[in-house]
């Protein structure tokens, strides 16, 4: 019995559909169906009861599938343990990234990583939506904010202050705000997630917190697009210092009202299980820390951030 056939059967059991399992595994439905038939022939029993519209486990399948699942998991864990002992860096990395961070920073870092470790392959999921590790078939998520699920494993990469930014041309035309209350007369560029527009901006001067309901004529569910609007001089935007770093360092945008700070966050690398923390993941974690801190230091040297961000 082929291991690959068993993996197909487990996917059929998960999706309760040969077609859906084949689509997930990127194979033809006939190929998945043939794998199931080979396993059932080898066992001498039908694992599924088929109707014209549904597929459900037979009594034999209900006994066999959970044991098969556990056996394959043990095999995979044994394989991974061996690789960990040998520090083997290979296999497929399935990574979820937010739009701006992913396209403009992390993707080039991953290109360098794959040049160093050519036996690594890559599948990227770039979206600002919250990832579901199992639904989206993702092994790693690089996200702003610490994980709020105790079942997840996370590594903090660095602190990430948010900054209020605009182009100098926009400020020349509409004026430089000196206080959060001055923002009422300005155009906000908004991030939107699940139909919620984040148009209430919060600032603090270390003593007082200010919440400002902004006006604006642009909103997007893509952080990269919000940044592009800002660089094009369409208004003011609050962006993470990593997302906007290149534009700040090249003077395409300026930090507005630096004495009033938007809420800061943190960059994390998150895994769904301890088994997901492979040698490749640990190397990625270290590389991401190195790259991120190098950017923060450039922003410190330019006077945009202070040393406290490195703590």
Would you give an account of this structure?
This protein has nine helices and 16 strands. Helices cover 40% and strands 25% of the residues. The relative contact order is 0.13. The protein has helices at residues 3-15, 18-24, 29-43, 59-86, 99-116, 168-174, 223-231, 245-249, 279-301, and strands at residues 48-50, 55-57, 91-97, 120-126, 140-144, 153-160, 162-166, 187-193, 196-197, 200-204, 209-213, 215-220, 237-240, 254-255, 261-262, 265-271. Strand 1 and strand 2 (55-57) form a beta hairpin. The chain is α+β, with helices and mostly antiparallel strands and 311 residues long. It has three domains: 3-85, Winged helix-like DNA-binding domain superfamily/Winged helix DNA-binding domain (Arc Repressor Mutant, subunit A, Orthogonal Bundle), CATH 1.10.10.10; 91-160 and 266-310, D-Maltodextrin-Binding Protein, domain 2; 164-239, Periplasmic binding protein-like II (D-Maltodextrin-Binding Protein, domain 2). The model has no long low-confidence stretch (mean pLDDT 90).
Strand order of the largest sheet: 4-3-5-16-6
The CATH homologous superfamily of the largest domain is termed: Periplasmic binding protein-like II
Total domain units: 3
The N- and C-terminal alpha carbons lie at a distance of 55 Å
Mean pLDDT: 90
Q: Which architecture of the largest domain per CATH?
A: 3-Layer(aba) Sandwich
Tell me about the largest β-sheet. 5 strands, mixed
What is the approximate shape? elongated
Low-confidence stretches: none
Which class do the helix and strand fractions yield?
Answer: alpha+beta
Number of separate helices: 9
Helix content: 40-55%
Radius of gyration, taken over Cα atoms and rounded to an integer in Å: 25 Å
Total beta-strand segments: 16
Q: What is the third-level CATH name, the topology of the largest domain?
A: D-Maltodextrin-Binding Protein, domain 2
- Beta-strand portion reads 25-35%
Top-tier CATH class of the largest domain: Alpha Beta
What is the string of SSEs from the N terminus onward? HHHEEHEHEEEEHEEEEEHEHEEEH
């Amino acid at each position: 019995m082929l291991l690959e056939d068993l993996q197909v059967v487990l996917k059929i059991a998960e999706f309760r559909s040969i077609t859906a399992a084949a689509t997930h595994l990127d194979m033809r439905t006939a190929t998945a169906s043939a794998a199931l038939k080979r396993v059932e022939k080898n066992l001498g029993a039908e694992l599924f009861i088929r109707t014209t519209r549904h597929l459900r486990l037979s009594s034999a399948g209900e006994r066999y599938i959970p044991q098969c699942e556990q056996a394959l998991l043990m095999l995979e864990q044994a394989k991974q343990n061996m690789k960990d002992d040998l520090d083997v860096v290979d296999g497929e990395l399935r990574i979820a990234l937010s739009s701006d961070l992913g396209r403009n920073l992390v993707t080039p870092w991953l290109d360098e990583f794959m040049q160093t470790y050519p036996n690594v392959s890559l599948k990227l999921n770039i979206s600002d939506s919250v990832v579901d590790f199992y639904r989206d078939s993702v092994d790693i998520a690089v996200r702003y904010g610490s994980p709020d699920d105790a079942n997840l494993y996370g590594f903090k990469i660095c602190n990430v202050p948010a900054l209020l930014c605009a182009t100098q041309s926009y400020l020349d035309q509409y004026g430089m705000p000196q206080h959060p209350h001055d923002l009422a007369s300005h155009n906000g560029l908004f991030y939107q997630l699940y139909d919620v527009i984040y148009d209430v901006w919060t600032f603090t001067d270390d003593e007082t917190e200010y919440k400002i309901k902004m006006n604006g004529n642009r909103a997007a569910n893509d952080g990269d697009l919000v940044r592009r609007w800002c660089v094009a001089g369409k208004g003011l935007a609050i962006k993470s210092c990593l997302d906007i770093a290149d534009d700040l360092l090249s003077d395409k945008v300026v930090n507005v009202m630096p004495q009033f700070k938007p809420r800061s966050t943190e960059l994390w690398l998150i895994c769904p299980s301890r088994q997901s923390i492979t040698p490749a993941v640990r190397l990625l974690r270290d590389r991401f820390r190195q790259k991120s801190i190098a950017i923060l230091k450039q922003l410190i040297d330019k006077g945009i951030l202070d040393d406290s961000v490195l703590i």
